[in-house]
Amino acid sequence: MQTDVQLVKNMVCHRCVLAVQDILQQQQIPYTKVAVGEIHLPQPLSDHHRKTLETGLQHIGLELIDNRMSGLIEKIKQLVIKKARNEVATTERKQNLSAYLAAGLHHEYTYISSLFSSVEGRTIENLYIEQRIEKAKELLVYNQSTLAEIAEALDYSSVAHLSAQFKKVTGLTPSHFRTIGHDKRRSLDSL
């Protein structure tokens, strides 16, 4: 069965998937699957359906990706988010970021890295660190894990490494952040 896959920019969480499914159902656009960053359709979109889908997505801060380069950038972001939040298989957790991305995207890491930097104006490593710190913020706000447990969950080599990186990115220590909490968190799509 042949399918058409449409890539969606800024679609980074399960709520986004649900919102896109809702738009597709409202507009009576048949689909086979919706995953983070992707809509799988049984056939290519008609011009009318493409326009109505684009309008619906824009209302919730998402957009269809038209060209191959933008699609690759979005896939890089999706893989980095999964790796940073440790939402990957155990074997992938053990891989370093460059090997993980090269295997997942079937491109040399030097190509992936230079493409990402030229388009995004920042490095993949910066995005990875930001994502890890955002996950640490989330865990700190929930106040159910110790700093040592958070460091282990996010594959930091030590609590000191997590604390130093956290302070460098946020300007606050993790314990101070825990006390002020919610006000300093950012949504994933704004990173």
Features:
about 190 residues, alpha+beta, four-stranded antiparallel sheet, 4 strands
Question: Would you give an account of this structure?
Answer:
With 191 residues, this protein is an alpha+beta fold. The chain has three domains: 4-64, 2-Layer Sandwich (Alpha-Beta Plaits), CATH 3.30.70; 68-122, no CATH class; 126-190, Homeodomain-like (Arc Repressor Mutant, subunit A). 60% of the residues lie in helices and 8% in strands. It is built from ten helices and four strands; from the N terminus they run βαββαβαααααααα. The protein has helices at residues 14-26, 47-59, 68-84, 90-94, 97-105, 109-120, 124-142, 147-153, 159-170, 174-180; strands at 4-9, 33-35, 38-41, 63-64. It has a four-stranded antiparallel beta sheet, with helices on both faces. Strand 2 (33-35) and strand 3 form a beta hairpin. The longest helix has 19 residues, at 124-142. The mean pLDDT is 88.
What's the gist of this structure?
The protein is of the alpha+beta class and 191 residues long. It has helices at 14-26, 47-59, 68-84, 90-94, 97-105, 109-120, 124-142, 147-153, 159-170, 174-180, and strands at 4-9, 33-35, 38-41, 63-64.
- Give the oligomeric state: single chain
Topology order in helix (H) and strand (E) letters: EHEEHEHHHHHHHH
The CATH topology of the largest domain is: Arc Repressor Mutant, subunit A
Specify Rg, calculated over alpha carbons. 18 Å
- Biggest β-sheet, characterized? 4 strands, antiparallel
Number of strands: 4
> Strand fraction band?
5-15%
Broad CATH class of the largest domain: Mainly Alpha
Helicity level, as a percent range? 55-70%
Low-confidence stretches: none
